[in-house]
Amino acid sequence: MKGLKGIFLALLCLNQIGGQACSREQFKDLYSSKGDLIQARVLEVKGGKVSLIRKGDGRKFTVPLERFDKATRAMLESGEVFTTDDVGNPTNRKLYPRNLSDITAALETINSAAQSQAEFPAGHRQALASLNAYRYLCGLPYRVSLDTGLCESARKAAAGCAAIGRLSHDANAEAGKCNLHSGIALADSIHGYMNDNGASNRADRAHRQWCLSPRLGKFGIGQEGQFSAMWTMDKSGPKPRYKDDFFAYPSRGFFPVKYLNPETAWSVYFPGGKLPPKDQIVLKVFELNKALEKAPSGKAAPPNSTELEIKYLSTSQWVMPCINFEPAAEVAPGKRYWVSVQAGDSRAGYLVEFVK
Predict the structure, then answer these.
(1) CA nearest 109: which of 138, 142, 78, 80?
(2) Do the domain assignments include residue 259?
(3) Which residues in 48-149 belong to E strands, given as ranges?
(4) pLDDT tens digits, residue range 143-184?
(5) Domain containing 156 — which CATH number?
(6) What are phi and psi of 27, to 5 degrees?
(7) Per-residue pLDDT tens over the stretch 198-218
(8) Pair (197, 133) in one structural domain
């Protein structure tokens, strides 16, 4: 309870309801309206109250939602920040964190914000809009902005590749700090990085990891001839308070099919976690033949489902602990899938439903 002051501690003690912590907690930093910190595992947000398990002694409490600061309340109410206490048993039990109208409105706002940086060329602005759209869909901070200096560094990286006539991170100093692409329009390069195809990229999908780096705040992109580059070495963005949680691509809930190449891998990330050896990971994908009314309980397969073949699975630590996997799944509107992951203490269970 380091940093927790008397008032907030008293509040917790008054609301104590007993209980012991589960064996595999993943804790959040929660802040009171007075700025005091408590580290706890969130069990449920319901009826204006938060049920949690306090780190350290494993005691269970309920706290009025109004006692947290604005940022913490938003995090708690978002439905996207809670881990699973076991595979297929997420503590928030929210299958669809965002409805379709929320997604449509957010993507329009993201595009408008990118276009408002009128001092940059149209291709730069469209690339920014695409990047922030992917980040929004994956539940990451998505107010990344174009930066003049970083765009110039990215242009130099592209120029270095143009000078030698091929893609190489050794072309110059700038190229070593960029994602590199060739042969497509600058505005389309972000889709290329997220797809991250090619045999040499299959295991890590590192270009994708850089696009989804949680701390990315400033964006630089540039082009020289057929070569383009995206600056990756930035950590100026906000540090997500759910860094110990997982996020996924495609993400939980509704996911527009235009943002996923049907031939590419899916990924699940544990930014604050740790992955065991690949042979100790149990990852399953189920096609749902009927809509789920609630998250599956325990480790059982979802009702009315078919387990799919996982054609390929790899782990990576390039930017953050990551599992890349290729399920035999059809990427088409109306298709629904349940993904469950057991990877040591890093665990996840989430639904993906593809939409137009």
Answers:
(1) 142
(2) yes
(3) 49-54, 60-64, 145-146
(4) 999 999 999 999 999 999 999 999 999 999 999 999 999 999
(5) 3.40.33.10
(6) -105, 155
(7) 999 999 999 999 999 999 999
(8) yes
